Amino acid sequence: MSLEPEVIEDCARLLDEAQSNVYDVDKLTDTHPGIDVDTAYDIQDALRAIKQGRGLRITGMKMGLTSYPKMKQMGVDTPIYGFLSEDLAVNDGGLVETALLIHPKVEAEIAFVTSESLSGPNCDEAAVMAATAFLLPAIELIDSRYRDFKFDLPSVIADNTSASRYVVGSRPVSPAGVDLETLGVVLEKNGAVMEVGAGAAVLGNPATAVAMLVNMLHVRGQSLPAGSLVLSGAITAAIPVAAGDSILLRADGLGTAGFRLI
Ligand code: 0L1
Ligand code: MG
User: Fold this and answer.
1) Which of 13, 22, 151, 249 is the most buried (most CB within 10 A)?
2) How far is CA 88 from the centre of its chain?
């Protein structure tokens, strides 16, 4: 069910204020049970417009719920997407202020940086690889604005798929010759290995997730501009983090990315 434009705007403002002022809220469908997936993306678009209205630049996109176990857990059969804005970017080796977060978790991902625009409806892995200038190891810090990190699909889409911070490695690697399926990652917290995985955990190949993003954008009349950074989805489970933690991702052939929470 669609919502009136002013209700969509109110929902986006509620989520924006929860993020800016660091408090959690009830999931949107508690108040508006009729929100469907399409309306949820309308709210996400309104949230994006609010941020752009503050002068923030959109730096790219992200895919979420890209592993089959996570989709099954949520009872859905397609991943979801969100946007990345410049205020979410953290320098490699930089600091993240925990007081600005509600209940942060981190996950290991592969980032794509495109040199050509991509559009649907039939985008595929080959088109993604041809349009990719380089790959980077990436850590996504997710931080749902919903109480206890509990939500349903429309609510989490509206909440920009829990996007909160991201860091990418400092050494761009050409995609030529990279086997994204067997690419191994090790996610460490305070020097201890917390999670390991391989690229194939993301829909069989992270490039498939990027192609799916492009095809999903097409359905909403959008495309992926050249120069986009895309977080292709979690290879590992998300692990909770707290002030004082140092997080490091080591990705086979791509180097490292990391940050410290203060
Ligand atoms: O990036 C992600 O896979 C997160 C998607 C939203 C679900 C969650 O917050 O766990
Ligand atoms: Mg993610």
Assistant:
1) 249
2) 11
